[in-house]
Amino acid sequence: MDFLSLFVLVPLLTIVGILLTKEGQMVRRVSAVGMGVQLTLAAVLVIRYLLERHGGNTEQWLFTADHLWFKSLNIHYAVGVDGISVAMVALTAMVIFAGIFASWEVDSLPKEFFTSLILLSSGVFGFFISLDMFTMFLFYELAVIPMYLLIGIWGSGPKEYSAMKLTIMLMGGSALLLVGLLGLYFNSTAGGGPPTFNFTEIARIHLPVQVQRFFFPFTFIGFGVLGALFPLHTWSPDGHSSAPTAVSMLHAGVLMKLGGYGCFRIAIFLMPEAAQQMAWIFIILTTISIVYGAFGALMQKDLKYINAYSSVSHCGIVLFALLMFNQTAMTGAIIQMVSHGLMTALFFALIGMIYSRTHTRIIDEMGGLMKVIPFLSAAYVIAGLASLGLPGFSGFVAEMTVFVGAFRHTDTFHRIVTIIATTSIVITAVYILRVVGILLLGPIKNEHYQHLGEAHWYERLSTVTLIFGITAIGLAPLWLSRMIGFSLGPVIEKLTALPVAGLF
Amino acid sequence: MHLNDFLIMRHELLLTVIAVIVLIVDLNLKRDRKTAVIPVALALFFVNVVAGFLPAPTGVLFGGMYKTTALTILMKNVLNIGLFIVMLQSVTWLRRPVIREKVSEFFLLLLATLIGMNFMISSGHFLMLYLGLELATIPIAALAAYIHGVGRSAEAGIKLILSSALSSGILLFGLSMIYGTTGSMYFTGVAAAFTKAPLQVLGFIFFFAGMAFKISLVPFHLWTADVYEGAPVNVTSYLSVVSKGATVFILIIVLYTVFTAIVPIWRDIVYFIAVLTMSIGNLFALRQKNLKRFLAFSSIAQAGFILLGVVAGSKMGMTSVIYFVLVYIFSNLGAFGVVSAISSVTGRETIPDYDGLYRTNPKLSLLMMLSLFSLAGIPPVAGFFGKFFLFTSAASAGYYWLVFIAVINATISLYYYLMVVKAMFINKNDNPIEKIKSDLPTRIALILCTAGIVIIGFYSAIYEAIQRLSIGVF
């Protein structure tokens, strides 16, 4: 058993453990222990990875393992990580760990809830460690399906509608993706070997440009749906607002990053020429995502909707930055993924905790929460400040890097879209501060809120885990960007060999 | 005939022997003790399933009219497994009053159809194919009309016999043209003499239409829904899984070995029919409330997906078709098994009846969910692998747009499969179906289905085994 496969195996063992238990309390404990082990493993992975690099190992993929699976189709179970996947695995481990504690109070069908939640996380982990696009696709779909039940059974509001919408849209995305992946598979014979799903091998082959041009949109849009690419983002606000707390956390925090990661790893890495040529279309769409998402958040009254639209905006920044094709912006994109993952998970966790006390998510009905639940309110302010990009938190590092990178392009088209996208920082500040002002400060509007209980230990644990991540990146960004920078090398090399194509 | 010849025909001969033994046992039973034939039939058939896997010679009999190859043995074994599960699932239903008086007829008719399918798959001559096809169809009509005194069941039987008579006529008409222009009915003879002469192509089109009736491809599907709804659940599941699988098998063999001269022509036809079948099957499935009708339309859509493997024309294509049929047997029989287990106890079989099923029958609901996910092609269950390989083989022939249409259809199909999942897991119900105590055979059948759905995908050796035996045009 190789080290990386543990990341899939531990959740599966945890599920077995959950199924063997009898009562609700034990289910929670088993889940917590399982995900605690997973978090420890992630920490070990980060340390081992850094030690390997420190020791001068320049292999692009570390801890690789490869097992032949379907021989005649040359399908392998292949795993391996570089700095970017390590960052993603660590992010996922933190969010799922916090998610378990944030859903400590789930009391209807707890066994089924935690099973689905952890099954979902095993799909995500599997996706990030896969080197073979077949297993990658398998894990991708594995991560989407439990979502239907999680939202449909334990959700709130128009949950059945939202669950169905989310599932069908994401599966529609994966339909596009499948065509793209099969195209890559059969055209990988261009290198002379048998067709392969292994993207590290396809990366060594130069695919003919017309092939790239045909399959790039399938792949990019396919992953883009999950990354909330405008106009295919509509599942996100509905889905996130109907989902139970932990699912919103995991979905906005991690699952949407699958989209960004896939766009980067498959679409842009394997088809750089097509990416260069078609970038302008997607740059325009992502710019719309960024600004539209921010305005959308400004108009909402429901806390979850605000945060869901804000996620659309922030994930737009990820895709926007990836399409800038330079080291700075792409580093920013990856940091933004991690940073937004932690931040939005924290937001959703806090919204869930506030909701369980006030039984409303409409901001106008609440007020002065800082006086009654200071811990949760302070955490909310931290999440807010990180989200609007205050120096010292992760959001600042990410957005700063992205926009500096984007501004490197000197042509008019890139200048204009960068300036438009940058305005989202201001709008973000407006909607975050508006919520903080109404929700937390001012007089207490509702008599019943005088005696709200302060955070329990499990809620504190969940919150502190995420805040730790946010501030760690904010205070020591170089540590993360160095880890990423090395792994970006091969992609940047491929892209800089090509002339930059602008619209004007 | 030598012993070797008997061994070559062992699948058919064994089934005939079993049918005779069942008949003899039945003759010696009193009228109120007829159900005692059930364990005998099940045990004998189980022996037959196992015997099918034993190594035995391959070869040609009757001057080339009948041939056994490793490939046909594989296909027959797949069908054997399917029928075995269907038989296990029928036991509860067969013990019900009225029906229990004619248990052995049920087994006899089933065995007769399987003998027909086996002859059909093994045929090396169009007349043998036709005889096998008829033997596989006519007893099913009797089975569909099995519950006497029930109008809908009789209607199903009549509809099936009329439509299959029509399709047989069309098929024979096509065959007569082929015979008239090539001068032979042997597969090898036809393949050698086949050119692109218009009359030959017309003959092929009639032949294909006749086969399409049996697989219920659009636009030849109109009989399906009524027959599926009216027939007893177990007959419906047999019809939609084993019977359909057998016809797909012989169709792909004939397309790949006989009509090699007109590959571009049949590819275009199959392409077009595949798109129609998937889309229309899906659109109708969206609106169904009765689970049997629902599964009927979903099985039409599934047949459209199967054509994606057929259109590839390659070894990979045939592998993916056989593999998918194997997966489909377990998934569809899983779904039908649950419907049958519930309907034979409570008689309820509409989707709203299943509201809140998870609270009362968690195991049945979970199996139903796994089966539906497998039909929809969702990992980690076997259906994902089955669909993925079908798509891969179509893409290998460059049909990317067809794959695109298919995956969009797969997404639409997910919607209606999820509607059933939603009913079982999410919807609330004040009057849910009570806890169902299944008997042993049903439970074995359901466990077999679950095991199949979970294992076949991950256990790649099955795919590789099929791959070694498959053939392609190219």
Describe the structure.
- The complex is a heterodimer of chains A (504) and B (474).
- Chain A has 504 residues and is mainly α.
- Chain A has one domain.
- Chain A has 19 helices and 2 strands.
- Chain A has helices at residues 6-20, 24-54, 83-102, 110-129, 133-154, 159-187, 199-202, 209-226, 235-242, 245-270, 272-299, 303-322, 327-358, 369-372, 374-387, 394-407, 412-440, 457-475, 477-496; strands spanning 62-70, 75-81.
- Chain A has a two-stranded antiparallel sheet.
- In chain A, β1 and β2 (75-81) form a beta hairpin.
- Chain A is globular and about 75 Å long.
- Chain B has a domain at 259-474.
- Chain B has helices spanning 3-8, 10-27, 37-53, 70-94, 103-122, 126-144, 151-182, 187-193, 198-215, 224-230, 233-257, 263-285, 291-312, 315-346, 357-360, 362-376, 382-396, 400-425, 440-458, 460-469; strands at 59-61, 66-68.
- Chain B starts with a helix and ends in a 5-residue tail after the last helix.
- Chain B is built from 20 helices and 2 strands.
- Chain B is mostly helical and 474 residues long.
- A two-stranded antiparallel sheet of chain B has the order 1-2.
- Classes of the chains: A mainly alpha (504), B mainly alpha (474).
- Chain A binds chain B through residues 69-73, 75, 134, 137-139, 141-142, 145, 148-149, 152-153, 159-160, 164, 167-168, 171-172, 174-176, 178-179, 182-183, 185-186, 214, 218, and chain B through 316, 319, 373, 378-380, 384, 388-389, 391-392, 395-396, 400, 403-404, 407-408, 410-411, 414-415, 418, 421-422, 425-426, 460, 463-464, 467.
Question: Can you give me a brief rundown of this structure?
Answer:
The complex is a heterodimer of chains A (504) and B (474). With 504 residues, chain A is mainly α. Chain A contains 19 helices and 2 strands.
